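Ops channel
N.P.: pipeline sanity check, posting one input/output pair.
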């Protein structure tokens, strides 16, 4: 399935406008000129600029708005696509119950195995990656991630 750049640009522009609309409600931090809305706001403005460029490029190309690609006929590629959609949905549904580390390991393991990574490499990389990401967010950035079924480890 292939969408013209005009369609993608319109979708990304809508997303950037939704982000900009939402960050206006973020609270201000007393005594600081830069609050929690600054980073997402800057990214949304950059995304809007890229979206406009895509729209212009798509209009100039004048290609069909929608066409199926060759990958749609490949069960392996369709499975990869569906797993890429299922992974964030599973994260949203399971992270509070299982915790960040367990959920991340399961998602990474499923993705690696689907992409035909050797099982022992998939397990090793999934576990190490989940713990490193958790450490960075929990310790360095002070983002409270759910522990779920695991006791607080550090």
């Amino acid at each position: 399935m292939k969408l013209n750049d005009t369609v993608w640009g319109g979708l990304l522009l809508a997303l950037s406008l939704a982000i900009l609309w939402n960050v206006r409600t973020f609270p201000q931090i007393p005594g600081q000129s830069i609050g929690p809305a600054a980073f997402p706001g800057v990214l949304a403005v950059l995304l809007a600029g890229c979206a406009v460029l895509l729209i212009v490029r798509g209009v100039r190309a004048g290609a069909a708005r929608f066409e199926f690609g060759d990958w749609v006929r490949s069960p392996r590629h369709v499975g990869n696509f569906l797993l890429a959609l299922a992974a964030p949905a599973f994260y949203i549904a399971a992270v509070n119950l299982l915790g960040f580390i367990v959920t991340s390991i399961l998602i990474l393991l499923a993705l690696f195995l689907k992409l035909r990574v050797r099982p022992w490499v998939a397990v090793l990389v999934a576990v190490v990656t989940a713990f490193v990401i958790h450490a960075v967010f929990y310790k360095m950035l002070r983002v409270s991630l759910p522990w779920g079924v695991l006791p607080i480890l550090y």
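N.P.: looks fine end to end. The CA atoms of residues 3 and 66 lie 5 Å apart.
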